[in-house]
Amino acid sequence: MSHEIDLSKYEIRTDLAIESIEENENIEGIKSVVEKVGDIKITNVVVDKKGSSVINKKIGMYITIEFDDVTDKDNKEKVIEVFSFYFNRMLRELNLTDNKSCMIIGLGNSSSTPDALGPLVVEDIVVTKHLFELGCVGKGFRNVCAINPGVMGKTGIETSNMVKSIVESEKPDFLIVVDALASKSLDRVNKTIQMSDAGINPGSGIGNNRKEISKEVLGIPVIAIGVPTVVDAVTIVSDTINFMHKHYSYMKKNINNPVNRLIPLSSINYLKEKIEIEENDKTKLLGYIGSLNDKEIRALIYEVLSPIGYNMIVTPKEVDFVMKKLSEIISKGINKTLHESMNNT
Amino acid sequence: MSHEIDLSKYEIRTDLAIESIEENENIEGIKSVVEKVGDIKITNVVVDKKGSSVINKKIGMYITIEFDDVTDKDNKEKVIEVFSFYFNRMLRELNLTDNKSCMIIGLGNSSSTPDALGPLVVEDIVVTKHLFELGCVGKGFRNVCAINPGVMGKTGIETSNMVKSIVESEKPDFLIVVDALASKSLDRVNKTIQMSDAGINPGSGIGNNRKEISKEVLGIPVIAIGVPTVVDAVTIVSDTINFMHKHYSYMKKNINNPVNRLIPLSSINYLKEKIEIEENDKTKLLGYIGSLNDKEIRALIYEVLSPIGYNMIVTPKEVDFVMKKLSEIISKGINKTLHESMNNT
Amino acid sequence: MSHEIDLSKYEIRTDLAIESIEENENIEGIKSVVEKVGDIKITNVVVDKKGSSVINKKIGMYITIEFDDVTDKDNKEKVIEVFSFYFNRMLRELNLTDNKSCMIIGLGNSSSTPDALGPLVVEDIVVTKHLFELGCVGKGFRNVCAINPGVMGKTGIETSNMVKSIVESEKPDFLIVVDALASKSLDRVNKTIQMSDAGINPGSGIGNNRKEISKEVLGIPVIAIGVPTVVDAVTIVSDTINFMHKHYSYMKKNINNPVNRLIPLSSINYLKEKIEIEENDKTKLLGYIGSLNDKEIRALIYEVLSPIGYNMIVTPKEVDFVMKKLSEIISKGINKTLHESMNNT
Amino acid sequence: MSHEIDLSKYEIRTDLAIESIEENENIEGIKSVVEKVGDIKITNVVVDKKGSSVINKKIGMYITIEFDDVTDKDNKEKVIEVFSFYFNRMLRELNLTDNKSCMIIGLGNSSSTPDALGPLVVEDIVVTKHLFELGCVGKGFRNVCAINPGVMGKTGIETSNMVKSIVESEKPDFLIVVDALASKSLDRVNKTIQMSDAGINPGSGIGNNRKEISKEVLGIPVIAIGVPTVVDAVTIVSDTINFMHKHYSYMKKNINNPVNRLIPLSSINYLKEKIEIEENDKTKLLGYIGSLNDKEIRALIYEVLSPIGYNMIVTPKEVDFVMKKLSEIISKGINKTLHESMNNT
């Protein structure tokens, strides 16, 4: 049946560079450095021209911050700290000093909770451009403006066009674009922030290709900040099949080891570890499916679910609470970094 | 004391042409025709160059629709009908035929209930521009797009500039601008819709002068649709003083007329009628204040309330419910008029 | 490995009677009749004492209405009609004539979109109890009151206790309880309304067992109305595995049939049909997993996903729009049925 | 005309004890002590049986906190501190020690911004009752539950009845009731918090008399916390007439004093001071109106505005922002005071 699967048909939905590289170690043209701050994991990926063609991601820096629970207040504060630190570093590397003016764009639909990250962040940005024009801004503030352009289904206007015309008239020195993304991994949903200088395709993650918002198009640096807030059913199923392989291999090796009987099952995090799985085990557990590689499995699931309309794109049921916390993290992080005088609040 | 009152200090807050003309009958350069549809009163005012300089309103057509209760469903439907009829007539007079594309701008702050009329209306506009560009629009639909530019305090950007740059890039044939207004009459608040081809000054009614959005500035026809949603304390007090005059005169004349004793007080609408008040009565009732004309009274009240921060701008406490109904009337009226195929829904 | 799977550990999450019976045909003590109105499918299930113990559902009537798209206006109206018809029939069967007073309870958390169905419905219920007490209600209206008790996490109070004390003081003749449910089938999410006279366990579907709201507890008839708005990852995966079996069997049989090559894949709805799958095919396709039955597969997936926190409960990303439409259907349907005079609006 | 004015017709709308006593100094049965914390003024009023009959306020303690701007962050924090201090003192005086359980009731309509104070406060209360029942509460937390019963127009149920039945079943040791109030003074709107142990009449301030929620009715202490968020037109007009008297007297005395010509008008706060006004001045300025006392003026204005529907109840146009800040102050203040362990957050 393998020959029937057309891999090109199912393009994997991901906006995260980290997901594009994770299965391919040592790709030429891609540098990846992982750092840790407490429980928070930061992955710095630099994609050059060569790497760009391999993983189909644009040339640029991609910083991914992975964390666990942001409903906990202390943890939230830590994530804000880490976000500010790396965001500040990116500004410095792009030479966007305090005197450079900034426009922030909140992409997405404010009426749709899982898509409202951009509008929610913009709501809490400290804007100063109008005060700069009146000449009444205190020290330690940058020239900042912010807009929510809305979504094409509600405005009738191509979002990137609207952004382009406002950029041309307001002439900011650089752009920050905030958007909700799609993930191809169940465990990154609402637990990852990516920032990148490679621009963004509004709605690309969720299958509506809009025109690009990037330095090439606009002529000024564009920093894209995104959080994966949705996954599709294909991802959930293929991730689970993967976990089942690991579970099976792990159980097989350890089942007769009496030590394991003393460990509560829930404390075993083997599913997050790299586990060598014998090809033989895979087919034993999952037959023909077990003989396919990840891309083939995804393509097959897509082929099964798509025609009957079941490749639903879903979001965790706690979406309302999580969006609030995530938008707070990003807006506070942006305010702190852009406005020096807000660094201590 | 009269000599101390500087009338220029207190510019009367009104966005309604009807309020600019109501005390001055037969002004040269202003034509005014009143029509009635059931309980609904429509005033058509045309201001030419001469009239414009007299009443400080821009040259153009001003249609004012006055109605009572829009929480009643039947009444609401009637107001939608009347609105559509006059809006359609204005489009025809401006030669804005079905093939002319339209952009709708919702001015105001979506987070502030009395200022959210524009954003609420835009939320329910049927947009089609993106479908026209794909070539997939059925018959009976006009090319329509719609945006909420936000307010300067939240974007940092001069709203009229933002509108100008989007108009230049999207090139609509005409503009509709929807905004909440200020009234200088207590009884018009939330009970009046004004439409005009004379453009608009965002926030002018509530004391924040922004740059104009008009044909002169943008080069295309601009139809402004507004509802007064707020009044200031000065208006409430001066209206009441006026009512007291009328009340006093009426009572004096009728108090000994035994017929009146049979009429319940609440059914007497003499306060809405024109009543000749003797100058003598005025000073008897209100002393020095009674000797002042309307403008002088307003200026005096302003002089008293303003320095102590009590010239509050207020809105009726039912504002949330009323904004819903009013935005529904305007969005339905616009949709029906712009899209021929929606005329029967 | 089969012996390791503890089926009792993973109790299947479903609030729908229809899902409890669908794999077991001809269960003693359960009568099931299917009707069709256009595209809308209505399943009437009656569970008696015997049936109750088999499927672990309480004794009572369960009417399930399945439909497709409620974003389409015509379709929405049809669903309202069907809902009213069957709801009215249930009232008559329970002898809840127009003179019987009704209290409506909206369960769920108004701040969490997928859980807000109950609060949204209550928001639009036409209440009359206070008018009855004043003696000023027109003909054709029933005595109706409605409350949103909130959720325990926000009130600190056991919801069923709060309902019980209000019922005891207000003494309605019967109760209607509206709640968001969990489904164990991907394709029922947001596309099914269940009504039943068997009462409800608030939050039971999503794993938080609260005390029951039922005739047994309250002493008056309780009609529960629910819509499944969430599924867990286990359901998504096990449904997909099932679909894969069907897909495989169907393809094997038809792959060499040249006729099929002319049919676009998307028009084939074989996955919704009952397809006989050979046991042999199952293991060929899915190895060991293929040899398990549905319950065992679910239990295994649960065992894999649960310890690592990946058995997420999810909702389709369009949840905001769908909740609006569904609550409109149910509130209109309830208003029409309870108040005779609203039948023609 | 004076003899025509029926004072009883126009009952002054105020929920604030401070407003009932302010014009009557040294009333027997009323003790009033004023304290200052920076710009914040705190008035402690104790009404005994004798005083109660004079000012038509129930026996009890009334603490009123008056402040200026709560949009300023520092100022907001100070008001929270002061609120907590006096709230804590009231708890101690009522002997409501940490082991006493508390139920918080948010009165008002969550869909109407100026009436949403109660629901907004309850939204942010830290509830613990359900955790106490599970035996899993850390040290420093009190047993607290909280509900929003809704308004009669939306539930059909008399609010006080609903509260009574929940109190009887949940058996808290005392009640806190939070509500939006009406003021009879323009300058107290949104700038005053009153707390009292005298209970509350839901909606009494805005003219809808509901049944009382008080210790007499419920058998447990009831602390009412309220903020005036609305005023009626009568208040605005009569306050302004008062200001005009003061303005006139002040100007007359000072107009020829050259020193005053150097003081900017806006810095003169004479309108807030007690100014002796000669009776003669009053009638000179305001004729017959000037000869009336405050109550008579109010009654007259009411007689004029009421029949034509112009005694509108209004709220400042910034109501959305102010409600957010005020509810934050009260919820934080309550949380800090009830839960000892939250005192340092």
Write the layout of secondary structure elements.
The structure is a homotetramer of 345-residue chains.
Chain A: H1 17-21, E1 30-37, E2 40-47, H2 49-55, E3 60-66, H3 73-93, E4 102-106, H4 117-123, H5 129-134, E5 144-147, H6 152-155, H7 159-170, E6 174-182, E7 192-196, H8 215-218, E8 222-232, H9 233-254, H10 279-290, H11 294-305, E9 313-316, H12 319-338
Helix pairs in contact in A: 3-12, 4-12, 9-10, 9-11
Helix content of chain A: 25-40%
**Euclidean distance between termini CA atoms of chain A:** 60 Å
Per the CATH scheme, the topology name of the largest domain in chain A is Rossmann fold
Could you tell me the mean pLDDT of chain A?
84
Beta-strand share of residues of chain A = 15-25%
**Any idea how many domains of chain A?**
2
Pair with the most extensive interface? A-C, 56 and 56 residues
Number of strands of chain A: 9
Can you give a write-up of this model?
- The structure is a homotetramer of 345-residue chains.
- Chain A is α/β, with parallel strands linked by helices and 345 residues long.
- Chain A folds into two domains: 8-230 and 317-344, HybD-like (Rossmann fold, 3-Layer(aba) Sandwich), CATH 3.40.50; 235-314, no CATH class.
- In chain A, 38% of the residues lie in helices and 18% in strands.
- Chain A contains twelve helices and nine strands.
- Chain A has helices spanning 17-21, 49-55, 73-93, 117-123, 129-134, 152-155, 159-170, 215-218, 233-254, 279-290, 294-305, 319-338, and strands at residues 30-37, 40-47, 60-66, 102-106, 144-147, 174-182, 192-196, 222-232, 313-316.
- The model of chain A is unreliable at 1-9, 205-209 and 262-268 (pLDDT under 50).
- Chains in contact: A-B, A-C, B-D, C-D.
- At the B-D interface, helix 9, helix 10, helix 11, strand 9 and helix 12 of B face helix 9, helix 10, helix 11, strand 9 and helix 12 of D.
